[in-house]
């Protein structure tokens, strides 16, 4: 029997946001974790801010590492497992990069040998500090670090896909050296799947690390074009889960919906619970789903300035730790037993060439065809054009028919192409 789907939350401290590491208050953290555990969730994803933990390339602050371990132990006391993101990196519109990589010390995050050595030492140190904790899931290399590698970032650290291959291998190896045998992974925002010049590629996302992570946000054009209650909006997370499978070498590689949220005003507060329920229900219809980790636990305090407006209201709980309707939806899902979804037997053919990623993006041909099939009840998955005739691959994934976007989007053409 496959393992049960995990339900968790990205932990945003109610007091001080992620700046709480500067004035760490374990009692406040415990109260936050109590409010999370009361929802019946089983894990949290936590975010040490990189420049606070490693302010100099040769200094990883022991006290900061001790505080991270204390947080993990407090989570364990409440039955919560912990995943730790290392390189923060980017959070909620703010960049957090140490001074030894910027301005007068400007060095490329992905290609400079000294920076890479510093990053590896940092990830290895955090992993090693938690390696003996039974509730430690593993490391995520960083939060959406691909946003530093290309536009629209105003000052990107340019790299080639081959250089990113080397960087990912080094970072994941450092995590494994620190905590052997744990579930270590990396995670990017959806430009990896949608932006043709992004050096972080779908193949890297689906092949490096122990699980594929996807981050689903409908403010990427989906909700703007189609509305909050549309098939594309309510199935966007499921789309990314199934899209990622096209590049996986392991036909049964698990996928972690590691970030998903209900962003206002595109999803107004009074409709957030319905959006959450639809998103979770549709994601649970994806075979091989490792877990769903909602963004985020607690609202950002209105006492903090300069956040985009939507960031203040994304929490499952208010800033004073009261659960919202969306918290109740996720709690109900976490407490239920979910049947194993049937295989998705219809596969939409997608281009293996990373230059073809615009077809996968909102209102690209693959994107439109996927949701046309979904609206027709087909429960589609995806397959690379280079594997569409590989009968062994199709059989291993339970695929019995393939279809191209052009076939789906041509009104007079019935889209099914059977395979033995």
UniProtKB/TrEMBL annotation:
Q: Output the SUPFAM superfamilies linked to this UniProt entry.
A: (Trans)glycosidases (SSF51445)
Source organism's superkingdom? Bacteria
Give the matching InterPro entries: GH (IPR017853)
How is this protein named in the record? Glycosyl hydrolase
